């Protein structure tokens, strides 16, 4: 029965789902009124009123379940659900409705059932609305489970402050870095460009992600000269230490330790030490301040 409610989120949106080119203002107003009435009944836990928003022969098919047919059976299901799940609320996302004839509309969207102190339940649905002498009613609803993508956001959110555009201005040039989330927040990308006078001297991309085997944050770096490298990240309060190993374009191996310290949401410092190329120790990079653009 919990799944029954998930599809009914399709009735909650009072103004976002009817396209101007699909329905006349009059029909849009009538559908919105039916939606508002349904939401009121649902939020009150009134099973009889909720079932009354369906046609007498209305059908609902939950994910992997048997079809519930008719207002009487729907009312029984809602009655049981409201008893078991007090305080349930409904929400909608990505709602799309097309009027395919003067008396029939098809709706598709993502539905979410919210219960107190529980994780929301999410499904995709397709619903057929029909115009009857009693107004717009639900006639057929099919619901499918949504596979929630796995995300490593919880492991990476301590670095979320880096999202945005950052600039290091110097006397001879500047470095601009743009940091973004990828889809599902499983990785962060940092694209950088080194400007010297009026030209781009070097550019590249760093990808930051969570290593589920090593249980640590790792990064992969690729530059426009053909070099590439990896890094291991560790955190100590507002300071991140990145131990790097690189292969330069000429085949030489390089290593070092980069330290980034967050000062506030718009400022961090950077320094590099322990730099080596093929075993030869190089001077470190003194601390510089980088600001949000």
Structure description:
- Residues 31-138 form the DUF4440 domain.
- Residues 1-20 form the signal peptide.
- This is SnoaL-like domain protein.
- It holds the Pfam family DUF4440.
- The protein is elongated and about 85 Å long.
- The chain is built from five helices and 17 strands.
- It has helices spanning 2-7, 25-44, 47-51, 70-84, 153-156, and strands spanning 54-61, 68-69, 89-101, 104-114, 121-132, 135-145, 164-169, 173-181, 187-196, 199-211, 216-223, 228-236, 239-247, 253-264, 267-277, 280-281, 285-292.
- The two termini are 51 Å apart.
- Residues 1-23 have low confidence and may be disordered.
- It folds into two domains: 2-145, Nuclear Transport Factor 2, Chain: A (Roll), CATH 3.10.450.50; 153-292, Calycin beta-barrel core domain (Lipocalin, Beta Barrel), CATH 2.40.128.20.
- Strands 7-8-9-10-11-12-13-14-15-17 form a ten-stranded antiparallel beta barrel.
- With 293 residues, it is α+β, with helices and mostly antiparallel strands.
């Amino acid at each position: 029965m919990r799944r029954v409610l998930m599809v009914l989120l399709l009735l909650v949106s009072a103004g976002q789902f009817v396209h101007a080119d699909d329905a006349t203002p009059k029909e849009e107003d009538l559908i919105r009124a039916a939606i508002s009435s349904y939401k009121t009944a649902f939020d009150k836990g009134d099973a009889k009123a909720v079932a009354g928003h369906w046609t007498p022969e209305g059908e609902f098919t939950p994910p992997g379940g048997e079809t519930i047919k008719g207002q009487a059976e729907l009312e029984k299901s809602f009655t049981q659900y409201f008893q078991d799940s007090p305080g349930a609320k409904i929400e909608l996302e990505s709602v799309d409705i097309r009027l395919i004839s003067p008396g029939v509309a098809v709706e598709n969207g993502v539905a979410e059932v919210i219960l107190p102190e529980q994780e929301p339940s999410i499904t995709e649905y397709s619903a057929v609305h029909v115009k009857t002498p009693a107004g717009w009613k639900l006639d057929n609803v099919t619901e499918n489970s949504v596979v929630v993508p796995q995300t490593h956001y919880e492991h990476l959110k301590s670095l979320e402050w880096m999202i945005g555009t950052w600039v290091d201005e110097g006397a001879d040039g500047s470095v601009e870095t743009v940091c973004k989330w990828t889809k599902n927040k499983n990785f962060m990308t940092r694209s950088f460009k080194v400007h010297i006078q009026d030209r781009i001297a070097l550019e590249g991309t760093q990808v930051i992600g969570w290593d589920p085997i090593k249980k640590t944050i790792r990064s992969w770096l690729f530059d426009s000269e053909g070099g590439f490298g990896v890094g291991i990240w560790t955190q100590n309060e507002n300071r991140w230490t990145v131990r790097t190993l690189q292969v330069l374009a000429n085949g030489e191996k390089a290593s070092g330790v980069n330290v980034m310290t967050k000062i506030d949401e718009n400022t961090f410092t950077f320094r590099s030490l322990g730099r080596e190329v093929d075993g030869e120790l190089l001077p470190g990079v003194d601390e510089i301040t980088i600001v949000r653009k």
